[in-house]
């Protein structure tokens, strides 16, 4: 990804996620504005950025001070004349619970920096981001989405829950102006946030946050996700909470993509081919598979083409067997094949449409994943399942009732697989697109008037391209997403926020 000539503000940039993010943007030739309070640490980050890119603009400021926040924006515009990306990363932790009597003190300490400062800085930056049709990325925490086992982080979680809501509200308001807003909620990250937290040292020593991967993310991992969300490759992602690109290499990796004759599958196969992967394309339409094969050959290795129906158990076994026979291993499985049918309780087609879809949308994924598991374990590989926002929320019109049920089941399966396979070093994630420009509707037997009644509108007033979904697939399959497993990632142009 190139951010050449882009102007990026990163708050909390003196260490941790902020410092790592500033360095990554500098490597991509952005004009970076680093904001923090620790002058000595800011000098270190400045030197690191200069080694790989442009000299950053350094602003020593406390973001919780309104005058200082105004100065951050004013000095940025005065020097560069514009603003493209705002990364609201500054924040800190305080402990306090109802029982120890410290919760109100912790809340008072946290709220100005973790929430109010973000609102203030975002408000000041908004006119400039509208001009550049830019991006806002807010750094939250998993503590804002779910109460952790110890209530010691109650006040911290409250501030981050507020930040999550603000991010969705800002995305809704700014979408019509071409500005995307997203929030990242990391789990445990290697940083000095605990050192600066004033938490009891014995508590820090004894406190454990278990993860399926039994590891803690690096600041760079979160930084890579920030860059991805700020790039045009994430054009369809706004209003979303992502629980934790420069060029990625999949050279010598073996990747199976089902449903690869068109749409998301074809785009994904082409993207993996560009990254020099050995791609296995699976589909039923021979003519379309030939077209995809030719496209892949133009940019990379000739793919292995397997014409098969994934819902047939024998053919599913053949897909895995032929892949291993040719390449000797399997690194990535993209379960993309799926079909759509309409049917409601009132029109009497709910059972019929469910029966048609469940074999391909759910059972085939379970079967192919089971067959692939021994090989994926050997390579410590990845499984990525393509689901839908229809599996996350009942949409208006209810014509997607049966389709949504199959995708809800797939979402559950993805999370369960991630839990079982984590100890073997295998990551499993799902992707839930909203409206995408593909031929799935042409093949769905759904009448146009039914689609009109469903009102699949988005706050961005656009549909994603297949390439946008493919870019997210590649990111999740890469080592840059090593801390991401067991989640279903939404790329819907804000459809769920609106509905």
Q: Could you characterize the architecture of this molecule?
A:
This protein is an alpha/beta fold and 499 residues long. The chain has 2 domains: 7-242, NAD(P)-binding Rossmann-like Domain (Rossmann fold, 3-Layer(aba) Sandwich), CATH 3.40.50; 254-497, Rossmann fold (3-Layer(aba) Sandwich), CATH 3.40.50. The protein has helices at 16-27, 39-52, 66-80, 103-132, 154-174, 201-206, 219-230, 263-274, 286-299, 313-327, 350-379, 401-421, 448-454, 466-477, 495-498; strands at residues 7-10, 31-36, 57-60, 85-88, 135-139, 180-185, 189-190, 217-218, 241-243, 254-257, 278-283, 304-307, 332-335, 382-386, 427-433, 488-491. The strands form 3 sheets. The protein has a 7-stranded parallel beta sheet with strand order 3-2-1-4-5-6-9, with helices on both faces. Strands 12-11-10-13-14-15-16 form a 7-stranded parallel beta sheet, with helices on both faces. It starts with 6 loop residues before the first strand and ends with a helix. It comes from Danaus plexippus plexippus.
